[in-house]
Predict the structure of Peptidoglycan-associated lipoprotein.
Amino acid sequence: MKTRLLGAVAALALVAACSSTDQNAAATGAGGTIRPGSQEDLVANVGDRVFFDFDRSSIRADQRPVLQRQAEWMGRYADVRVQVEGHADERGTREYNLALGQRRANSARDVLVASGVNGARISTISYGKDRPAALGSDEAAWAQNRRAVTVVQ
């Protein structure tokens, strides 16, 4: 009798734990809702990155709409602060790529500010070639690594 009772209590505890885990996953966006104003919201509904041409830091015309959507999103979430990360592909020296990444981050920041976002809400940092998004030594990988990424703080 005691064994059956303990078994039933254990099964009930297991079901309750699974239910709690499912609720936690839904709250954080894993198959459920995404918290408005979060990094997940930015990525899913706006886009968090813009891409650059080789050895360039100017914002391409096809990337401006992403930054415009980011500015509008930041207008909806006035308490959100972001950091724009500048990145480069693996070619070039570390020092050169850090400077290029900084110029890319600054260019993205400048477009956000020109679109109405208070500059005090945006910081920048360069990672140069130290944090590649794609591994490989070909144009497909390099194109993914030449980017500026907006990260919610």
User: Anything to note?
Assistant: DSSP finds five helices and four strands in the chain.
